[in-house]
């Protein structure tokens, strides 16, 4: 009974901490005397460690047992949060944030696998629905929570409360982990970890994510292009190594056959598009509401609560709504938001459009992730979950970068409406890609889907 809350607490904390530090940056800068580079690393260090570690940590769960790796990740995340909150200077805060990101990477793949172990059929669909709710709410409310904690200044902690709040929650979850989570023994040789592959995939992912995170803000210096150029051959070397290990009968870090599982590759594209759309929307809203409409941060946050409300309410019914209808809802919400911006309407109509948009995201997120993982064989589940998490992260980064490029490209002369419409055009395109995936999946014969897939991504006839 307590297993689901324990794993969802971990999901919520790790997702929230990706965003919660953004509103604390001015206070961190003032309190610690941090420079621009250090502040950027406080934000980017978490995401980089998270993205680089997901595939490796998914494999660790397969080898050592998912409960064991989950427990270790939760303990490390709690300790790293304490280190962040107690950091005396920026030089101590940055490595603590990197440790937080690594701990989050240890947790994320295990959560997805543990849900599959704990539940099946309709219960699995409901569990993934709650998972999607936790991820979505943490993502869309992260900055608001950070701002609230800094403004409330509990016990005079200021920005430190954003990190220290995780400590009692993490300790409580750790006390329950051994009693409520099932033991999941490893399925392979514990010493059979492809260290070379781990280095290659981590280096390749950092080479992709780091320049995308830092490039626009720094004016795309030469090193960003060098990193992006190096990423392709590095990741290609990783793929070749995994194929070679699999062909020789040795255990690869990531079994190439996982991409041959029916619907997995196409589902990954849809996941990337959905999370890219979500990240891009957050970027556009932050600029349009405050700089375009002239709202205060508090008023802009109030408008964005409509997105949160739509997501939460819709996610409670996600398992009963066909995915095609869910994707249409998302497309309609974004199109409605574009119409509202084009007409120059006020914040109330923006909030109404966001309510519909949030509803579409809430209806889609959990069933989509469930459908991608539902057919993967259990011995590959950890690695597959790591891939899904990596795609979520990379999709979010790419969505923000592409949307930002379209937005600023149309901003000449302070034309906020035109810039917002350009950004929304990118987001509608991404949502249409998700819709296309849902339509193609709906056309597959129902009898070809396994029970878990029917529960997680069903089609009403």
Overview features:
78% helix; mainly alpha; 17 helices; disordered C terminus; 461 residues; Growth Hormone, Chain: A; globular
Structural description of this entry:
- This protein is mainly alpha-helical.
- The protein folds into three domains: 1-193, Up-down Bundle (Growth Hormone, Chain: A); 194-252; 255-461, Growth Hormone, Chain: A (Up-down Bundle), CATH 1.20.1250.
- It is 78% helix and 0% strand.
- The chain contains 17 helices and no strands.
- The protein has helices spanning 3-19, 25-32, 36-64, 66-85, 90-118, 121-152, 161-164, 166-180, 195-214, 222-247, 264-292, 297-315, 323-343, 347-373, 381-409, 416-442, 451-456.
- Helix 3 packs parallel to helix 5, helix 5 crosses helix 15 (381-409) and helix 15 (381-409) runs antiparallel to helix 16.
- It is globular.
- The protein starts with a helix and ends in a 5-residue tail after the last helix.
- 53% of the residues are buried.
- Mean pLDDT is 82; it is low at 446-461.
Overall spatial form: globular
**Category from helices, strands and their pairing:** mainly alpha
Can you identify the CATH class of the largest domain? Mainly Alpha
CATH topology of the largest domain: Growth Hormone, Chain: A
In CATH, the homologous superfamily of the largest domain goes by the name MFS general substrate transporter like domains
Helix content: over 70%
Q: Into which percentage range does the β-strand content fall?
A: under 5%
Total of DSSP H or I helical runs spanning 4+ residues: 17
Order of helices and strands: HHHHHHHHHHHHHHHHH
């Amino acid at each position: 009974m307590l297993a689901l809350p324990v794993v969802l607490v971990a999901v919520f904390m790790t997702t929230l901490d990706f965003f919660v530090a953004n509103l604390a940056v001015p206070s961190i800068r003032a309190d610690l005397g941090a420079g621009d580079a250090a502040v950027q690393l406080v934000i980017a260090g978490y995401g980089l460690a998270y993205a680089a570690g997901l595939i490796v940590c998914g494999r660790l769960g397969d080898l050592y047992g998912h409960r064991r790796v989950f427990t270790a990740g939760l303990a490390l995340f709690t300790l790293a949060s304490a280190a962040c909150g107690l950091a005396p200077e920026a030089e101590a805060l940055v490595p603590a944030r990197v440790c937080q990101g690594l701990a989050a990477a240890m947790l994320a793949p295990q959560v997805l696998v543990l849900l599959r172990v704990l539940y099946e059929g309709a219960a699995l669909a409901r569990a993934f629905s709650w998972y999607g709710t936790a991820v979505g709410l943490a993502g869309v409310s992260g900055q608001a929570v950070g701002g609230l904690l800094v403004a409330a200044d509990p016990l005079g902690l200021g920005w430190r409360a954003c990190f220290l709040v995780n400590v009692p929650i993490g300790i409580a979850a750790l006390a329950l982990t051994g009693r409520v989570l099932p033991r999941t023994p490893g399925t392979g040789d514990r010493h059979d970890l492809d260290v070379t592959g781990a280095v290659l995939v981590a280096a390749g992912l950092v080479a992709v994510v780091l320049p995308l995170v830092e490039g626009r803000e720094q004016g795309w210096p030469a090193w960003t292009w060098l990193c992006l150029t190096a990423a392709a051959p590095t990741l290609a070397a990783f793929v070749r190594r995994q194929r070679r290990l699999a062909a020789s009968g040795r255990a690869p870090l990531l079994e190439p056959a996982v991409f041959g599982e029916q619907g997995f590759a196409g589902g990954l594209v849809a996941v990337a598009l959905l999370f890219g759309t979500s990240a891009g929307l957050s970027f556009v809203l932050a600029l349009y509401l405050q700089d375009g409409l002239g709202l205060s941060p508090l008023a802009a946050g109030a408008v964005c609560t409509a997105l949160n409300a739509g997501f939460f309410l819709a996610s409670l019914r996600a398992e009963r709504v066909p995915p095609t209808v869910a994707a249409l809802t998302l497309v309609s919400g974004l199109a409605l938001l574009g119409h509202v911006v084009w007409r120059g309407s006020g914040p109330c109509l923006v909030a109404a459009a966001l309510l519909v948009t949030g509803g579409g995201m809430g209806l889609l997120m959990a069933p989509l992730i469930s459908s991608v993982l539902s057919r993967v064989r259990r011995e590959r589940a950890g690695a597959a979950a790591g891939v899904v998490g990596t795609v979520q992260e990379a999709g979010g980064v790419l969505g923000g970068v592409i949307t930002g490029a379209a937005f600023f490209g149309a901003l000449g002369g302070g034309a906020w409406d035109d810039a917002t419409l350009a950004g929304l055009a990118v987001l509608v395109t991404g949502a249409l890609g998700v819709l296309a995936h849902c339509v193609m999946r709906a056309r597959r014969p129902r009898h070809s889907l396994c029970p878990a897939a029917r529960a997680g991504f069903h089609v009403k006839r």
